[in-house]
Amino acid sequence: MNKATIYYYDIGDYLNREEKLEIISTINLSAKLACTMQEQ
Length: 40
What we know:
Elements: H1 17-39
């Protein structure tokens, strides 16, 4: 069984929907880049 790593990032309640989605998109892109770099 492989272990998984869970990352938590608190974006707060004070942002509107668009701001929260922008942060999530940025985090998701960063995670994809990190995975791509590890594979090389």
